[in-house]
Amino acid sequence: MSIDSPAASPASPASGSARTLEATPARALGEFIRAHRERLSPEEVGLPPGPRRRTPGLRREEVAQLCGVSPTWYTWIEQGRPVSASAEALARIAAALRLSRAERAYLFELAAQRDPAEPDAPGAGAAPETLLQTVELIEAPAYVLDRQWSALAWNAHAADLFTGWLDGEHDRNLLRFTFTQPLGRALIVDWETRARRLAAEFRADSIRHLNDAPTRALIDSLLATSDEFARYWGSQDVFEREGGRREFNHPRHGRIAYDQITLKPAHREDLKLVVLVRL
To answer: Which intervals of the chain form a coiled coil (predicted)?
Structure first.
């Protein structure tokens, strides 16, 4: 079914259920779009003002015209009805409503869709210079991960802690280090628990770009080379990335413990700054 022309009219919600519907994602999406439609004047989008308007802002038909979708479909979206909306259609709505970057991101989150304008995964060395400098200034193990959880930057403290990963010439991917390198298994205390958690956290973190070529290639490689990763990935567990206590059996320093903190830059949410504070 085309997203621009619904096939059948869903039943109208009962008046007594309006308060409940407002809490649904579809209803929240519709309310958000309607509010921003009402803030725009015809002149702001290049349309003639026309006759006197009874309500503020653009008419639904005008937004539908700007988006290249049917007025009926657009009306149903605003009403919070259960109709499908592709990422491309949402992008046209965002452009028509002149949404800011933050507003556009919120729109796609409400719709549980990935913004097609979202930048591709950055390559090695693509971290902002200020972020690289920040890592060097931190007096504790610190490193930056990209979308596939490969290290883009790290300081000397992190290189000293993560032997076999951030020291010398090694594969910089955290998942490969954990699941395919004997040094990773030896370094991480309670490896099985941490590894299972890591796979579940990566599933949650990668959901919006699971079919991107680099992410897909990484997952396929891990499935082929690690029985444990294949088992944990197949369990379909999904956990948010969490901080907390991390323990290591270091070959030189012995048993050591840290409190892990993960931060995301405001304008580069595909990157993570991870800091480990000694306990």
So the answer is: none
Which amino acid, one-letter code, is at 151? A
Separation of alpha carbons 63 and 13, rounded Å: 24
In the chain, which residues fall in CATH 1.10.260.40? Answer: 23-109
- Quick one: tokens of 256? 């050591």
Mean pLDDT, range 217-245, rounded to an integer? 88
| 10-17 contacts at long range (C-beta below 8 A, 24 or more positions apart) | 10/76, 10/81, 10/82, 10/83, 13/80
Cα separation, 212 vs 206, whole angstroms: 9
Residue with the two structure tokens 């503020």: 56
For residue 144, give both structure tokens.
Answer: 């930056």
pLDDT (tens digit per residue) in 81-116: 888 888 899 999 999 998 888 788 878 878 888 888
Task: Give the containing element (helix H, strand E) for 184.
Answer: helix 182-187
| CA–CA–CA angle 183, 209, 86 (5° rounding) | 170
Return residue ranges of the chain for CATH 3.30.450.180.
Answer: 127-276
Task: Judge if pTM exceeds 0.70.
Answer: no
Q: Looking at this protein, which amino acid is placed at residue 188? A: I
For 61-71, the pLDDT digits (tens) are 988 898 889 99
Fold designation for 127-276: Beta-Lactamase (3.30.450)
Tell me the pLDDT band of 120, cut-offs 50, 70 and 90: low
Q: Would strands 244-250 and 272-278 be described as parallel, antiparallel, or unpaired?
A: unpaired
CATH superfamily of 23-109: lambda repressor-like DNA-binding domains (1.10.260.40)
